[in-house]
Amino acid sequence: MTIQEFQNAIKKGIPNELPELKPYDHSVSHAPKREHLLNETEKKLALKNALRYFDAKHHSILVPEFAKELEVYGRIYMYRFRPDYNMYARPIEHYPAKSQYAASIMLMIQNNLDYAIAQHPHELITYGGNGSVFQNWGQYILTMKYLSEMNDEQTLIMYSGHPMGLFPSHKNAPRVIVTNGMMIPNHSSQEDWNKYNALGVTQYGQMTAGSYMYIGPQGIVHGTTITVLNAARMLGNGQTKGKVFVTSGLGGMSGAQAKAAVIAGMIGVVAEINPIAAQKRHAQGWVDEIYTDLDKLVKRIKAAKKGGEAVSMAYQGNVVDMWEAFVKADVPIDLGSDQTSLHNPYSGGYYPVGVSFEEGETMIAENPEQFREGIHKTLRRHVDAINIMAERGMYFFDYGNAFLKSARDLAKADILKPDGSFKYSSYVEDIMGPMCFDFGFGPFRWVCASGKSEDLDKTDAIAARIIEERLAVAPPEIQQQLADNLHWIKTAKENKLVVGSQARILYADAEGRMKIAEAFNNAIAAGEIGAIILGRDHHDVSGTDSPYRETSNIKDGSMFTADMAIQNVIGDAFRGATWVSIHNGGGVGWGEVINGGFGMFLDGTPEADARLKSMLFWDVNNGIARRAWARNEGAVFAIKQAMKREPNLKVTIPNIVDENLLNNL
Ligand SMILES: NC(=O)c1ccc[n+]([C@@H]2O[C@H](COP(=O)([O-])OP(=O)(O)OC[C@H]3O[C@@H](n4cnc5c(N)ncnc54)[C@H](O)[C@@H]3O)[C@@H](O)[C@H]2O)c1
Predict the structure, then answer these.
(1) Ligand 1 lined by 507 (C-beta under 6 Å)
(2) What CA–CA distance (Å, rounded) separates 403 from 400?
(3) 236 pLDDT more than 80
(4) DSSP assigned state of 33
(5) Does the beta carbon of 611 lie inside 6 Å of ligand 1?
(6) Which of 149, 387, 405, 458 has its Cβ near the most Cβ atoms within 10 Å?
(7) Cα–Cα distance between 653 and 467 in angstroms, integer?
(8) What DSSP state is assigned to residue 428?
(9) pLDDT digits (tens, 9 = 90+) for 604-613
(10) Chain-centroid distance, C-alpha 66
(11) Is the CB of 360 under 6 A from ligand 1?
(12) Which domains does the chain have, with CATH numbers?
């Protein structure tokens, strides 16, 4: 297809004539059949809702077709309307657009639906089993058309994948505002999601999927490397060599764990029930060795530990079989975790032990009750094995997948201490929170809109220079973080992390993000590189209120509030973001988290310079101020530093009470 044909297809929008019905493509990974609780009246409502996108002359054909999709897949995806062009992030000039800001958003949308990136591309799901960019192809087509038409005095309003339309605004307003899964609080249960998503009126945007900011697995490799590295450092001698990290999941994000363990110099062992997922990661080189025989795996781990190797191994099978084998063989394990999709356990996020992956899939559709029972039993055995290993000295952490919560709430497993608290910490409580988020370090990222790898090389070099300059004068509290990030950016290219767009993730604090972005904007102005799209994961300092993950180290009782995330997205919107998003959901499940993010287009202009400084400063310091108010020591330090640098910043600092006064009450 020529560029012109591609542009015409985008500009056409919802086609006037029905495209050919497409055969179901078995060569791509598809979402499992979704559960829904719709009665006959509600099924009709779901159909009426879907048909709103199409001229009435097509309804007689589409009614039975969409009814069948709802019956067979549990949702209406409108497969017929899947575009014929290839889905990937094209160079920005290939997009038909009146606004370069809009073109940058189209680029990111296509990146999130790229077959090399998206987990279930035909169901418009980027990652996490249910992280949707759109609910259906009608929404995608219409959104791309709006973006191709919009000017810089309009804002596109997105309601859970549905483009409500273009509204007049102004040059400094965001070009797109995204809300995903926002519900009246009392209607935010999993059953509500099953129902309202099936009706086509809400979607689970995960974090970066529904905000068009997913950049493939490297986003998570960096965060996982930092987590595993610092977890290993906590175990006494600070060395990672010869340490064994055992976990599960080689899926969308969990697939990063094996690679991160090797980058951190350790032995990574990861169970994966889905043979396709395990083989895919092996073929990509993200996991070095693959086993189906647990005896062989046990021997190999012991040998690797003895030799101090940095190597990763997959066990293709159920994680519980693996843990139980390790307990029996007394395998010395230093670190343990889990990254099955336990935020979504009943629809394919977690598979019961004793059945194959295929049998599990069939059971979800044909016998959901038996499947649920199987999940509960499996999770109890999973926790029992981990408890034994922890008694033998292993450090276990929840990896933000609702492991602890599901073990407690769904399986009633042996996961609580006598005082009712969890036996284990979340990785944010012990590691990411105190070491990174409280100081403002979080998953800053950028995409080179030109699509050129030379641009990415130049941006890597610019970022490395800035970290080096900062490291030379940094206070001791943040030297380790800066040193780790410098190592990361210097080795990023050789670690071959790019999948999809020419993108890079780099953990950075407020000052780092602002300085790096400013230097990019200057390089664009000087003609050294093309335009840059900035963003971040929602899994960050300020964007996310999530008591079981990002805000699990907030101990003043405010962990169940969501003021920070809401303040953040409002503040980003009027300080210059190109697009903003706020979601219900994210990694730990529907109703359990509110998370927000942004995208910002840099074109080398003075306006971009002003915007990046204003917005990035707020986007990080909002969360640091809240963390400081919660009495987190690192955050108190960081916000005081920020106030020294910025006289217009005046933050309320907490007074600390002497515990003895309370204890003597
Ligand atoms: N801490 C973080 O930074 C962070 C980051 C990403 C993801 N997460 C969370 O981790 C989870 C995984 O994310 P993902 O994108 O990789 O999801 P995913 O669904 O793509 O991958 C999970 C994998 O686990 C496998 N699996 C399920 N049950 C299993 C079992 N019993 N034994 C062995 N393998 C099993 C699945 O086959 C799947 O491949 C999610 O809950 C996500 O929210 C946390």
Answers:
(1) no
(2) 7
(3) no
(4) P
(5) no
(6) 405
(7) 28
(8) I
(9) 999 999 999 9
(10) 30
(11) no
(12) 3-127+134-198 (no CATH), 218-433 (3.40.50.10730), 442-660 (3.40.1770.10)
